[in-house]
Specification:
The structure is a single chain. The chain is about 45% helix and about 15% strand. It contains 15 helices and twelve strands. The two termini are about 15 Å apart.
Length: about 375
């Protein structure tokens, strides 16, 4: 079986859920099966590639002036090489995002498409990225129709695909993701951290709902000057966020920091709770990361989040300040509840593994080829 993956997510994503998923699948297929697995990639500075030592990387290129132009040139070159490989013949072609450049070059290859979420279609926000968002929507619709088989990363995403595109449910298989993060031992961060903090991980913009979350817990922060919020990742606070922190006089209790895997694991392990107040998630790997590190989890009761969190999480209505405040207050003030949530988190985590994800990909490829 010859399986070809393309460059897309690795060309532009430094790290994140999509590239992590494909790295785990590609690496697992190479190690566990006798398949000929090829990732077409001339250059990448993706951190997950570095972790798995899967591909030569040139991280210095991301810092040079005009580096984004170079990425575009390399992306076009990758596309040419993909078309050449498709012309020579492969059994399975699995692109890593939603560009359509290869559609006229597939030949006899079976075409598999992973749909991570339907955020562009369900919650398109008018921003300076609207043109790019609309392009993703247009391309995704075409690819969903053309694909031999669609992989959805949750039942919630599968249901959204069916509702929005009218896709035949039999064309879609749900394959869950997993967590790659492991707890750390004997690790101390370079800088001292607050003893009491609520953890928020990743992007804070738009549907990630950070602003309403922050506004909801202001009374908790004001009542306890030792309580903090740590925002892991998501870039430095912008001018609007800084202004809001200053107007609330809480700038000293809300911190932003970048992280590697060891620091992120430490942050989960020592947090009072991890809060994921997103309005929409196709899956939400941070939920499993928190479970793996013994961190109590507070989730929105929307989209895929109850599906992943099960009975191990506490749930909020993400558009309701009172709900956010009440649930988080209950969790951070109740040690017995947090300990019970940790135990349930470990149990829920057992339902998800990369090995299971890899096996289900291979078995699906095999079934399609046999039919």
């Amino acid at each position: 079986m010859k399986i070809l993956f393309d460059h897309q997510t690795f060309n532009y994503q430094n790290y994140g859920g999509i590239s992590r998923y494909f790295i785990e699948v590609i690496n697992g297929l190479k190690k566990n099966y006798s398949a000929d697995v090829d990732l077409q990639l001339v250059y990448s500075h993706n951190e997950h590639l570095i972790e798995k030592n899967l591909h030569p990387t040139k991280p210095f290129l991301k810092t040079i002036k005009g580096g984004w132009r170079l990425q575009k040139i390399l992306s076009r070159y990758n596309e040419i090489l993909i078309k050449r490989k498709l012309a020579k013949g492969v059994d399975i072609f699995h692109p890593t995002y939603f560009d359509t450049y290869y559609l006229n070059s597939l030949g006899k290859a079976k075409f598999f498409l992973t749909v991570y979420d339907m955020i562009h279609e369900t919650r398109l926000v008018i921003t300076n990225n609207t043109k790019a968002n609309l392009e993703v929507i247009k391309n995704k619709k075409i690819l969903v129709e053309k694909a031999t088989k669609i992989i959805a990363i949750s039942e919630s995403t599968k249901n959204d695909i069916i509702a929005i595109y009218g896709t035949d449910p039999n064309k879609i298989q749900v394959i869950y993701l997993a967590s790659s993060l492991l707890p750390v031992k004997n690790y101390l961060p370079e800088k001292a951290l607050p003893e009491k903090y609520i953890l928020f991980v990743g992007n804070r913009k738009s549907y990630k709902n950070f602003t309403l979350f922050f506004e909801s817990v202001i009374p908790l922060l004001k009542a306890d000057k030792d309580l903090h919020i740590i925002c892991a990742g998501g870039k430095k606070f912008n001018d609007d966020e800084i202004a809001e922190l200053q107007s609330s006089e809480l700038q000293d209790q809300v911190l932003q920091m970048n992280f590697d895997d060891k620091l992120l694991a430490y942050l989960y392990q020592n947090a009072l709770c991890f809060v994921f107040p997103s309005l929409y998630e196709g899956f939400g790997i941070p939920t499993l990361e928190a479970f793996a590190c013994g961190c109590p989890v507070v989730l929105s009761n929307t989209s895929s989040m109850p599906e992943v969190g099960g009975d191990a999480a506490a749930y909020i209505e993400p558009d309701n300040q009172e709900s956010i405040y009440t649930v988080i207050k209950q969790v951070i003030e109740n040690t017995a509840l947090r300990n019970e949530m940790k135990k349930k988190g470990y149990k829920q985590l057992e339902k998800f593994s990369w090995q299971k994800c890899i096996d289900e990909h291979y078995n699906l490829y095999q079934r399609v080829l046999c039919n």
